[in-house]
Amino acid sequence: MKKTTKPKTTASRKSTEVPKKNTPPPEVEPVRPGGKLGLILDRLSTKTGATADELVDATGWQRHSVLGALSKLKARGFKFDLDDNADRKAYRLTLVKG
């Protein structure tokens, strides 16, 4: 018994999708979290910012947990810098112009 196969077509289907341009999405202000992450943001938004040790004292977390929280905030879209002045390395929230 002979198997029947469908003939291969060489014409490809044309895509109706429009190619996307490499434009970044518009900047949207991230949602401000509550709880201890909100507390960390409050401390970072002060004029002098906050050191990791100050954030440890404020939250009661261990240092590695505070640094992880800073990483999570950065991933959520909050922008902050580490200012190294004298012997004080403080994180400060960068204000987004809007």
Indicate the CATH class of the domain at 35-93.
Answer: Mainly Alpha
Shape: elongated
Q: Give the CATH topology of the domain at 35-93.
A: Arc Repressor Mutant, subunit A
In whole angstroms, the N-to-C terminal distance is 74 Å
Going by CATH, the architecture of the domain at 35-93 would be Orthogonal Bundle
Report helical residue fraction.
25-40%
Low-confidence residue ranges: none
The percentage of residues in β strands lies in 5-15%
CATH superfamily of the domain at 35-93: Winged helix-like DNA-binding domain superfamily/Winged helix DNA-binding domain
Strand tally is 2
Helix vs. strand class = alpha+beta
* Rg (CA only): 25 Å
Quaternary organisation: single chain
Q: What pattern of helices and strands is seen along the backbone?
A: HHHEE
Largest sheet, if any? 2 strands, antiparallel
List the strand order in the largest sheet: 1-2
Q: With helices defined by DSSP (H or I, 4 residues minimum), what is the helix count?
A: 3
**Overall pLDDT score:** 83
Would you kindly provide a brief summary of this structure?
With 98 residues, the chain is an alpha+beta fold. It has helices at 35-44, 52-59, 63-75, and strands spanning 80-85, 88-93. The protein has a two-stranded antiparallel sheet.
